[in-house]
């Protein structure tokens, strides 16, 4: 994961202040995700946060760029450039997550775990368009993100943890059969 150091835009500073206030409300995971979602909706930055070099890459890949980690470890912000064909593994998260699409379309496939834990059940699909905001919290946040379009998509993700300390927002990867 790369760290963005060259262009700390004023719009990102405003977002950090708004997220800080949302997190300071000291609510439960789901409510905090909702408050942070409201903050991101009000302060969604432009895709100009990423340089041309950060947007470049091979088809089928994505790259993460750490924008901010709150000094007290309460949240981290990451911009992700999704090239055409890129996709994550099916996963869930260690904490709440909020994301906003800065440009393009970010497709999300949602799953639930079967009662016996041996398979995944398709729970839905979202096509998150430019400007869309999504907020969720564990448990029940099993998903896969992908770019099925022909253009690079960019999204900003805010996680309720210190990514410098934990390394990844993913708690678990699911390599299980999927039931329709």
Automatic annotation (TrEMBL):
One of its GO terms (molecular function) is ferrous iron binding. The keyword Lipid metabolism does not apply. Pfam families: CDO_I (PF05995). Keywords: Dioxygenase, Iron, Metal-binding, Oxidoreductase, Thioether bond. The keyword Oxidoreductase applies. It comes from the Bacteria. Fe cation binds at residues 91, 93, 143. SUPFAM superfamilies: RmlC-like cupins (SSF51182). CDD domains: cupin_CDO. There is a cross-link at residues 97-159 (3'-(S-cysteinyl)-tyrosine (Cys-Tyr)). Belongs to the cysteine dioxygenase family. This is Cysteine dioxygenase. It comes from Actinomadura montaniterrae. The lineage of its organism: Bacteria, Bacillati, Actinomycetota, Actinomycetes, Streptosporangiales.
């Amino acid at each position: 994961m790369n760290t963005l150091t060259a262009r700390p835009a004023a719009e990102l500073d405003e977002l950090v202040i708004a997220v800080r206030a949302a997190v300071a409300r000291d609510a439960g995971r789901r409510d905090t995700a909702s408050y942070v979602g409201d903050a991101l909706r009000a302060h969604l930055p432009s895709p100009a946060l990423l340089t041309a070099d950060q947007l470049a890459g091979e088809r089928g890949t994505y790259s993460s760029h750490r924008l901010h980690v709150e000094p007290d470890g309460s949240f981290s912000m990451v911009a992700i450039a999704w090239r055409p064909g890129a996709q994550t593994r099916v996963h869930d998260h260690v904490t709440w997550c909020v994301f906003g699409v800065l440009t393009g379309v970010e497709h999300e496939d949602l799953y639930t775990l079967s009662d016996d834990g041996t398979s995944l059940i398709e729970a839905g699909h979202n096509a998150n368009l430019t400007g869309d905001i999504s907020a969720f919290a564990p448990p029940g946040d099993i998903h896969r993100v992908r770019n099925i379009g022909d253009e690079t998509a960019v999204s900003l993700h805010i996680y309720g943890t210190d990514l410098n300390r934990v390394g990844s927002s993913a708690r678990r990867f699911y390599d299980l059969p999927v039931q329709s």
